[in-house]
Design a protein that fits this description.
The complex is a heterodimer. By secondary structure, chain A is mostly helical. Chain A has 13 helices and no strands. Chain B is globular. Classes of the chains: A mainly alpha, B alpha/beta. Chains A and B meet through helix 1, helix 2 and helix 12 of A and helix 1, helix 2, helix 5 and helix 20 of B.
Chain lengths: 313, 476
């Protein structure tokens, strides 16, 4: 009956007595506040505040190590970054890396998921085994790949040598260094795409395939007109997650190449690190970080709109 | 009913939550704004350049742990073992802890804590080039009065005392007695040339050109063994020190310290010649894929007999004569039959790189630990302790210790160090050091690995480093 009043909720809330044994002052609403406040506090102090603080610093010439107050410099830091050829060079490197790594991971991840989904025996064991790389720390992955890719002592060149190929300088040549980063990232993160693709493939209704069989549809027809359209939206979400992750790649670069040879594998994140911790140009590094966040947000929004259109279509 | 309850939450508690959120944000912002002034002992004074007292304050008798920070390498463990064995004889209540980080993180590990005005170490072991940055930011104590009162300054080669403590930087080979001192020598170091006596003969090459010829001949005559092994990585100061060494040997200079000029100095004729020798004559004699080699990789190549001639920091060369780590022999004598250690060859000039590090006192350490740190330094710089440190594997800085049998007989490369002291040259120790070294490292590494034309790389170094100096570290 309370729903017919002007302020039904307040009345309902006020009318509902606390549970037996609970203080009468501790209403459901207050209890809810108590429960969410630790998470909110954590979110505010660990995420929201640092972001706002970085935004403020990005308009100053502040340096974390110099004993001088921060002076307001307007958009100078943003102008410096956006007009710097060095930054555009790192952006290009990052773009090549993200495109290469995510494309390779998507093709391989979907391929493996498709093959696993067609098996009935040992599917669980296979899936678990494929997931192992994803569970390792990127630093550990970087370190053992660094040993494996060593031109002199590494197992990869040793294997290539036994097959009659020459030594490859995986980490010290411009082209192979970036390719090596893509390969290592692909080794670690293909299982992520595979896992999501597998979830999508498992969810495709069986009756669609049965209907296609009755119509004597070819294997390719089933894949093209049933499997792919059903899995595609889920796959695109996985691609978005991976692209965002790859965009802020730091650890593998730090361990495997240190951005070298020269600066040829320096990604945007690695460059921000150098600006922030070698020069301690905190204001400039904050602006750099904010710009990166903006790029991710804008691209993700465009991507999500495309996904929504796809869904509506 | 659930829907109705949700709507009802928009009233008073919602406003309260928003107010609370705003209050938390404001409070956190205020806390962060005020955070820079927080002191941890001497912190408040440190911002304006705190001075250590001339006399050591009264020491505590309570248990105390004195913490150092260094990077992970054998001398770090040697220091901890030595100090705990010897210093505790004088101060039984004190435990020495030498905390280490990977070499590549060494600068960041210290300076991010300095930036927070709070350190979990009392004695930072700084590279000589870090001094300017730490002094300018008030991160370490001014030890001038303490040194005057407690240290026998005449017992040291002047440049060694200056290199690990003086700021503004001393001229190469000298010490300005009027300048302030912010540190004392802990571990001296320079490069040694390691050569295969069984492959190129007992006598080491005397000039740089002879050294390259000997390496080339050795490589041609011994398939599977590369002529040279040296630091080329773009992390830390690896590739930069290599170029700076060749630059010095061929008569070049890194900068003009007086007017802070780099453009036109590092890339002058001598500098270009040095870059050409490094990239076009030395690099072809190295192992394939050695473009990211640093200390460990060079040691591995020597220990496995894969290099005719190598260049290495003396303090990192100890493992080379350890039979457990080498394939060159089953005893130290067998290894030393094959390996020789010599000072660097000369060419146009007689210059070797200054390595090693000094001890400093964190301006943010509590007062009792700052006092203990000063006491440790005074103890460590005594003649008999320096000799014991030499016998324990350290490289001392006092002349009497350098000339002592304890030091000269402790390792096959220690004579090399003693002979190199008068030839040492350091890089810049200005506050912009970290950026200068990164510019040089990345460009030399690019030239060594074919990512950049050598001449272009050197001109880029000059231009970018000059920009950094001119903007006092600003910009990208």
């Amino acid at each position: 009956m309370t729903t017919t009043t002007d302020h039904p909720v307040q009345e309902a809330s006020a009318a509902s007595p606390p549970a037996p044994g609970r203080s009468p002052r501790l209403t459901d609403r207050r209890l809810a506040l108590v429960f969410i406040s630790p998470a909110m506090l954590l979110l505010l102090t660990m995420s929201v505040f640092p972001l706002l603080w970085a935004l403020y610093l990005s308009f100053t010439d502040y340096s974390a190590t110099r004993d001088a107050p921060a002076d307001f410099v307007g958009f100078e830091n943003y102008t410096t970054i956006l007009t710097s050829p060095e930054v555009w060079q790192r952006a290009l490197t990052t773009l090549v890396y993200v495109t290469g790594a995510v494309a390779l991971q998507t093709v391989l991840g979907f391929g493996i998921a498709y093959l696993i989904s067609r098996r009935t025996r040992g599917r669980g064991v296979l899936t678990t085994l494929f997931l192992v790389p994803m569970m390792l720390s990127p630093v550990v992955v970087g370190l053992f790949w660094k040993f494996m890719l060593d031109a002199q002592f590494g197992v990869i060149n040793s294997m290539l040598g036994s097959l009659g190929f020459g030594q490859v300088e995986w980490l010290t040549r411009q082209r192979t260094a970036l390719f090596s980063l893509i390969v290592v990232d692909t080794w670690q993160w293909t299982p992520f795409i595979m896992l999501i693709a597998l979830a999508g493939l498992t969810a495709v209704p069986k009756y669609l395939y049965e209907a296609a069989s009755i119509d004597r549809a070819s294997e390719w027809f089933r894949f093209r007109h049933i499997t792919l359209p059903m899995v595609w939206p889920l796959l695109l979400i996985a691609v978005m997650f991976r692209a965002i992750e790859a965009f802020r790649l730091f650890d593998l670069v730090y361990i495997l190449t240190s951005g070298g040879p020269g600066v040829s594998t320096e990604t945007l994140s690695f460059h921000v690190y150098k600006v922030a911790f070698l020069g301690f140009n905190t204001g400039l590094a904050s602006a750099y970080g904010i710009l990166m966040v903006l790029v991710v947000i804008v691209l993700a929004q465009l991507y999500l709109r495309y996904l929504n259109k796809l869904k509506e279509g | 009913m659930r829907y109705l309850q949700r709507v009802g939450r928009r009233s008073l508690p919602g406003r309260q939550a928003r107010l609370a959120t705003a209050a938390i944000l404001v409070a956190t912002a205020l806390a962060a704004c005020g955070g820079g002034d927080g002191d941890g002992g001497g912190g408040a004074e440190a911002a304006s350049g705190a001075k250590a007292p001339a006399t050591i304050p009264e020491l505590t008798d309570d248990p105390l742990t004195l913490s150092f920070i260094w990077f992970e390498w054998p001398p770090a463990q040697a220091l901890e073992d030595f100090a705990n064995a010897e210093y505790t004889k004088e101060r039984p209540n004190v435990t020495i802890e030498v905390n280490t980080v990977p070499n590549a993180n060494w600068h960041d590990a210290m300076f991010t804590q300095f930036a927070a005005r709070q350190t979990d170490f009392d004695i930072p072991i700084l590279d000589s080039q870090h001094i300017g940055e730490a002094v300018t930011n008030g991160n370490i104590l001014d030890l001038t009065d303490f040194v005057d009162e407690n240290i026998e300054v005449d017992a040291y080669p002047p440049y060694l005392l200056a290199a690990y403590g003086q700021y503004p930087q001393a001229e190469t080979g000298q010490r300005d007695e009027d300048a302030s001192l912010y540190g004392l020598p802990l571990l001296g170091d320079t490069w040694t040339m390691i050569y295969r006596k069984d492959l190129i003969g007992d006598e080491p090459p005397k000039t740089w050109d002879e050294m390259i010829d000997a390496a080339r001949t050795c490589q041609d005559e011994n398939p599977g063994v590369s002529g040279l092994a040296f630091h080329q990585a773009n992390g830390s100061d690896a590739a930069a020190v290599t170029y700076n060494t060749v630059n010095g040997v061929y008569g070049g200079n890194l900068w003009n310290a007086e007017d802070k000029t780099i453009e036109g100095v590092i890339n002058d004729e001598a500098g270009q010649k040095a870059m050409d020798v490094l990239v076009n004559e030395m690099k072809p004699l190295t192992a394939k894929g050695s473009g990211n080699w640093f200390i460990d990789e060079v040691n591995a190549a020597v220990a496995q007999g894969k290099a005719c001639i190598a260049f290495q920091w003396i303090a990192a060369a100890g493992g080379l004569v350890d039979p457990a780590q080498s394939t060159l022999g089953t005893t130290e004598d067998e290894i030393l039959d094959k390996l020789g250690f010599a000072t660097l060859p000369t060419q146009e000039a007689d210059v070797v790189p200054l390595g090693g590090m000094g001890m400093h006192v964190s301006a943010y350490a509590p007062a009792d630990r700052q006092a203990e740190a000063l006491n440790f330094m005074k103890w460590f710089e005594q003649e008999d302790i320096q000799k014991k440190w030499a016998a324990a594997g350290g490289v001392p800085a006092r002349t009497d210790a350098l000339e002592s049998p304890e030091f000269l007989e402790a390792g096959p490369f220690n004579q090399v160090y003693a002979d190199s002291v008068s030839r040492m040259r350091d890089m810049w120790n200005v506050p912009e050091y970290a950026r200068l070294i990164d510019i040089e490292n990345t460009n030399v590494n690019a030239a060594l690995n074919g990512a950049k034309d050598p001449e272009e790389a050197l001109d880029d170094i000059a231009e970018q480093q000059q920009q950094v100096l001119d903007s006092s570290g600003g910009g990208l």
